[in-house]
Here is the input.
Amino acid sequence: MTDPILELTGISKSFGPVQANKDIALRVMSGTIHGIIGENGAGKSTLMSILYGFYRADSGTIRVKGREIQIADSQAAIAAGIGMVFQHFKLVENFTVLENIVLGAEDSALLRPSLRRARSELRALSDDYGLSVDPDAVIEDIGVGMQQRVEILKALYRRADILILDEPTGVLTPAEADQLFRILARLRTEGKTVILITHKLREIMDITDTVSVMRRGEMVASVTTSQTSPEALAELMVGRKVLLHVDKSPANPGALVLEVDNLRVTDAKGVQRLKGISLTVRAGEILGIAGVAGNGQSELLEVLGGMRAGTGRVRMDGQDIDLTGKHSDGRTRRAHGIGHVPEDRQREGLIMEFFAWENVAFGYHDAPAYNRGPLMDHAALRADTSAKMTRFDVRPQNPWLTARNFSGGNQQKIVVAREIERKPRLLLVGQPTRGVDIGAIEFIHRQIIGLRDAGAAILLVSVELDEIMALSDRIAVMFDGQIMGERLPVATTVQDLGLMMAGMAGKAA
Amino acid sequence: MDKMPKWADVVLLPLISLLLAGAISALVLLATGENPVEALGVMIDGALGSTRGWGYTLYYATNFIFTGLAVSVAFHARLFNIGGEGQALLGGVGVTLACLMIPWPHWTLALLAAVTASALFGAAWALIPAWLQAKRGSHIVITTIMFNFIAAALLNYLLVEVLKPAGIMEPASANFSAAVHLPNFADMLAPFGIPFSPQAPANVAFLLALLAAFLIWVLIWRTRLGYEIRAFGFSETGARYAGISGTRIILIAMVISGALAGMMSVNNVMGEAERLVLNSAEGAGFIGIAVALMGRNHPVGVVLAALLFGFLYQGGAQLSFQMQIPTEMVSIIQALAILVTGALDQMIRAPLERAFLSLRKARA
Amino acid sequence: MDFLTFVQILDATLRFATPLLLACLAGLFSERAGIFDIGLEGKMLVAAFLAAAVAATSGSVWVGLLAGIAGSLVLATVHGLAAITFRGNQLISGVAVNFFASGITVVVAQSWFAQGGGTPQLSGAARFEPIIWPGALTKIRELRTADPLSQAYSELISGHAIIVYAALLLVPLSWWVLYRTRFGLRLRAVGENPAAVDTAGISVVRLRFAAVLIAGVLCGIAGAYLSTALQAGFTKEMTAGRGYIALAALIFAKWRPWHALWACLLFGFLQALALRPDVLQDLIGLRVQGQLLDALPYILTVTILAGFVGRAIPPRAGGEPYVKER
Here is the structure.
C-alpha cells in the first residue's frame, strides 16, 4: 500500500480546440481500488484511452512501478501490465469464452496447445478470484455480466496488475453489480490494483479506497474515500459554477398537454430502457428531466418524437398517440403539434451536408408554405431561412452554407429556430446547449422560456444540472429507466438532485 | 469551414482523378509499344473529326447518360446499384415487345410505348432486389449482381425460345417494322439544312436522355421526394427523426434507377439495332458506375462524363481500326476512373485538402 | 443413362468446380477478415492470361503459374490499398479491379501475341497435363467395357491436373488454418470485431492485408488452372462470370470451407449438366432449359440471401473500414 504503481504527471490532450485533459496528475497506490469520478465529458475516458494506447498524450509522463514508459499502442499497455475493461466490450460475439481469452495472447502458431494451457490457467484464475465462467460458452449466448467477467479474465490472463474498468455497472443489474464489486474486492485481496471509472457516487462510496474527481478536463481532487461524503463529492463533481441566471416569471400552467402513462421501451437487444414512465406536462410549464446520460432519457425523447416504438399510453391534448410506430413517425408527431429539438443535432436534427435553407425545412418539408405544387419552393425557403437567421442571430447569416460550416451554437440555433417558430403545442428538447458557446446558451434559454410564456408545454432533457435548475418549473429525475422522484426547483439543491441521479434516493422524498 | 473550396471538390478533384487515370492508361499504351500521343490524336479525330464520329460518340453517350443517371439516383439514397446491366437487358425486352406486338402507325406513338415498356421492365427488375434490401436486409450489391446474370439467362431463353422468328438460326428477335424507325441525327437535322452522316446511329433518344437528365435534376434538387432521398442517403437516423420512411425511399429510388437503366434500350434496341439481340446492353450498365462516380452524381456531371465515355468508346473503336489497339483499352480507362474517383478518393483528397489548408494558412 | 455417362458428368463436375472452389476459398479468406471481394473475377482473369502468356513464352507451366499468381497479387494489393489503407469503398474497388482485368488482359494479349486478345494454344510442358493414376484406363473403348469401379477410378479419381487435387486438399487445409491456428483465430476475429483484435494488441491492417494477399494467391491458382489446365490457352473473358459464381457459392456456403466445397461441386455439377442437355432430358423426361441451369446458382443465392432457406449471416465487420475508436 505504500508505493504508487501508477503515476501520471502533467498529462494533457487536445482534440482540435477542445482540451479534453489539462495537466492531469494522478497517483494510484498498489493493491487499492481507486475510483475516478466525474460528469460525462469530464475527460475520464480520454485519460484512460491514453493509458491504454488509443491516444497519445500531447505532453506529460506515465510511470508504472516507478519506471517511466511510453504507451504507443495497446500492446505496450498490455506489456506494462495494464488491462482494460471497456464500457462497450471488445469481444468476438461468435467465439467461445476460451477463444476470446486466448486471442492475441496465444503461445504458438498452433491453437490447440494454447487453448489447452488457457483452459487450465482459466480454471486457476477462476479459483483464485472467484470468477467462474464456462470456457466453452459462446459470447452471444451469455449475459452481459458474464461477458464482463470474460473481459476481466482476458486482462488477468495477460498478467495485468492494473485493471481499469470504464463505467462497468452501466449495463449491469444491481445484483450483477454487487457481484462485480465482490470480484473487485477479491482482486484487491490478491494484490491487484483496480481503477474504477464511474459517475455513480454510490459505487465510489461502497468500494473504493481512494477517489479522484475530474471536472472539465482537470483533476480537481484526490481524497481518501473514508474521509469524504457523497455530498462533498457531488459538489466537487459539479463544481461551484456560477449558476446561470435566467430571467423568468413564475409559470402559469394551463391545461394538460402531454400525459404519459406507464411508458415502456425495449431496445433491439431486449434490454428494457424505459421501465414504466409516467409524467404530465401542462401548457405554459417546463418539465425538466435530470439524470446521468444513458438512463433512458434519450429513449423517452425518441419514443415521444416518433423515432421508436414503445408500449403504454401517451396522450396529446387528450388524444391517444400511436406508439407502435405502425401508423406514426416523426411526421405524424409534428402534425400533432409536437416539436422536437433532438439530443444529437449532427446525427438527427440536421443533415450536415445540406445547406442551411434546406435544413430549415427538415421535418417540415411537406409544409404547404415550402411547396408549390410538386416542387419545393426554394425561394420561399431561403426567404424564411434568412428571416429566421436574423431573428435568431445565426452567424454567418448565409443560407447557402452547409450545416457543417456553422459552429455548434449556430447549428443549434438553426434547429431551435425551426422547431420553435412552428409554434408547437409541445416541445421536446434534448441537451439544448451541449457543445454550445455561452452567448448562444443564454439566447436559446430565452427562446425556450419565451415559448413557454406563449403557452406551450415543454419537456426538457439535460444532463446539465445548472440548466435544469435554471429553466425548469418542475424537475423529475431519471435513473435506470425510471423516474426517481419530482422536485420543485426552489425546494431542492444540486446535492439532493445529484444523489437521486446516482440512484440513491427513493420515490418517497 | 470546409477543408477546401467547393469548386475544388466539384471540378478539381474529378479533373485530377481523370488526369491520373489518363496518365496510367498512357503508361499502359507505352508499355505495349504504342505512342499515347498518336493514340489520343486518332481518338480525337475518330470521335470528333466527322459527323459520323460525332454520331457514334453521341450514340454511346446516350446509353451512358441513362445508365449513369440510374446509378446516381441510387447513390443518392446510398444504394449501390450494380444491376444496371440486367435492368437494361430487361428494358430491351420491354422495348421489343412494345415494338413487335402492336403495328404502330407512327414512330412517335411507338416511342411513347417503348419508353413506358422499357421503364416498367427495368423498374420491375430493380424492384425485387430493392424489396429484398428494404424488407429482408439482403445486400443490394450482391443481389443486383446476381440479377444481372439471371437477366442474361432470361434474355437468352426469350431470344432462343420465344422471340426468335422461325427459320432463323441467330438468337435474335424479328426486325422491327420500318414504321417504328426512330429518326437519326441526319433525319432530324435535314430540315435545317445541316448535313449529318446518315450511317451514324445517334438518334432522337439522345434528346430523350437529355430530357431524362433534366427531369432527374428536377427530381433530386427540386422535389420533396428528391429532398427525402438525399436526406435518407446522408443520414438514416436523420431521416428517422424527420419521419422519412427508409423502406419507401429504398423502393422508390431503386424503381427510378431501374427504369432509367431500362430506358437505355430505347436508344440501342429501338434506335440502333431495331431488333433485340443477345447481350444487347454491351456493358453500358456497368459504365454507368464510372459515369456516375466521375459525374459526382449530378445530372450535369453525368451528361459530361457520359460524353467523355462516349468519346472514349468511339475513339477506342477507331484505335482498334487504325492502330490495332483493342477497344478493351477503354475498360482500362473506365476501371482507373472508377478506382481513383470511387475507392481511392482519400488518396487524392487528403493531399489536396492539406494543400488548400496550408494555402489558406499562408494567406492568413 | 449408363453409368459411364454418369461418371463422365461427375468428372466434368470436378473439373468445373475446381476454379470455383479456389476462387471461393480466396473469397472466404478475404471476407472472413472483413474485406468484401467482388474482384475475384478480375484477379482470376489476369492470372489466367499471365499464366498462359508466360507458359507459352517460357514453355513451362510452372513459371506460368507463378506469373499468374504474381499478376493476381498485384490486383489484390491495389484492392488492399483502397480498402484497408485508404479506407475506400470495398465494393467500388472490386468493380474497378474487374474492369481493369477485362481491359488489360486483351490489350496486352493483343500487343504480345496479336491473336484476337488470346494467347497461342498451349501444349506439352506449357500445360498442366492430366495425371494418370496407376492402372487407370485411358482408351475410351476399354473404358466402355470396364466394370463400374474401374470406370469411376479411371474417369473420376485419375486423370486430373495437379491443381484439381491441390484444390481439393486446400479445403481441409483452409479449414485447419482457420480453425486450428493462431492466424486463423485472429483472421476470423478481425472479420467479426476488429476492435477486439486491436485492443488485444494485434495490427488490424497487417492481418487484413495478409488475408487479401492469400485471396490473391488462390485467385492466381484458379486463373492459371482455367488457361493452362481446363483450356489450352487464354481467350478473351475466359472467366465468364466464375468469380461471381464463386461469390455466390461463398454465400451459399455461409463462409465455411467444407460447405464451400459442396457448394462449388453443386454449381460445377450444374455447369456440367448444362453441357449435356440430352442426359438431363433422358433423366427426368422433361426438357430443361440450359438457361435455367445457367441461372440456377444465382437464383439459389438470391433465395439464400433473402433468408428463405436459412439465413446467411456474413462476417459482422465485413465491408466496413476499421477506424479506431473507444
In short: The first helix of chain A runs from residue 44 to 51. The longest strand of chain A covers residues 4-15.
